[in-house]
Amino acid sequence: MKDKNDIPQEVIDYCIDNHVSVEEGMTAVIDMRLEAVEKNFATLKGEVKETIDKFETKVTAQEIEDVESFLNSLDQQIQD
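Above: the chain's sequence. Below: its structure in token form.
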């Protein structure tokens, strides 16, 4: 950083509140942002998995049997 104006206000506030250098403040702010991203990613991943599980459980045994029967029928038609 060449200029004090390049330092985000969030970092300046953190440095003042915690009595640390700008370097330590920037490191801490970056770490906090990374933790937030990791937490949000974990939440998103959980929501996606939950949605996938929700839709996968809606397939009934009868539907699977119908699809298998249809595929077997196609297979027989192709072989004939």
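The radius of gyration is 28 Å.
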